Amino acid sequence: MNKQKVYNFSAGPAVLPQEVLEQAQAELLDYRGKGISVMEMSHRSADFIDILDRAEESLRSLMGIGDDYYVLFLQGGASSQFSMVPLNMFSRSKKADILDTGNWSKKAISEASRYGDIRVLASSSDKNYNYIPSVENLNFDPEADYVHITTNNTIFGTCIPSIPDTGNIPLVADMSSDILSREYDVNNFGLIYAGAQKNIGPAGLTLVIVRKELVGKEMEQTPLMLKYSTHAEKGSAYNTPPCFAIYMAGLVFDWTIKQGGVVEMEKRNRAKAQLLYDFLDASELFEANVRGIDRSLMNVPFRSKDAELDAKFIAEADKAGLKTLKGYRTVGGMRASIYNPMPLEGVDALVEFMREFEQKNA
Ligand SMILES: *Cc1c(COP(=O)(O)O)cnc(C)c1O
Fold this sequence. Notes:
This protein is 35% helix and 16% strand. It has helices spanning 18-27, 46-63, 77-89, 103-112, 228-233, 243-259, 261-282, 307-319, 344-361; strands at residues 7-8, 69-74, 95-100, 117-123, 146-150, 152-153, 158-159, 171-174, 191-195, 206-211, 287-288, 299-303, 322-323, 334-337.
């Protein structure tokens, strides 16, 4: 079928590698000669356990995750982690320090506040979250059960430039929109979580990477299904896991390894982001919302002179095959999400389109 070349800049669910979609299509009706689809397999079958084990192994090798961490394949989205984190981590003081860098941090704060004392370490709400507060001189509460950060702020297009050193206090990170896009040292974190639908695979799967010693100390009222220990003890198969999403994530992990791993992804992502930011910084019509070292490599919000022109741009870009460029409701303007599977050619096509649009609408 002849189909228009489309580049999908959606913030999530987001673009997946073409090769992965083709492999899933080829295996959809008959998984590797088994005669059935992965969607139809028992989650207790040897074939599915193998899919699960290999997905975990690939992720461990991609991120350098040691044996002192569990990797959990859960459901409920990153949003469920806003409550699961406090329900599992409030083991002593029921206090937490949270860095407020956008909508998702705010939700982490409000959910955790239901179970304990939350202190907002610092906030960038004064400028509608277009920067990251300095993490250099933060005074962490030595009694805190955890410190929470959002490494990449999907809506506002900021990324934390350096990971704070929290000493003995476990650092928890919402990495939903930049996991696998750049190198992070897992050992700096007590817990990392991410919804899959940005850099990992289809929606329906949520990853949790958690240091083993932090598991099993949950609050008394924590429901069984919301305890990390429930899932850790049963290898993410206490109940039916999101089987097909796990299979897809495994394919994406293997694709990422084949491309050269996270090091190569980061190199490509830096090149893609630079192309876009350089254009925006030189443009007379468009400008990026975020300046300096806080700029995200994954989500690039930008705008033109006025909202009307933004709307025109989004509509015309869509017709040209540059899809889902509308900015988040409260931010306005445009946002290009350029996750791992977005090729440089996609960003090239966007920049070319913007150049022409600028000439016509200057
Ligand atoms: C998308 C996103 C979420 C919410 O994810 P769900 O899986 O929809 O619950 C949370 N945090 C960040 C940083 C996100 O980008």
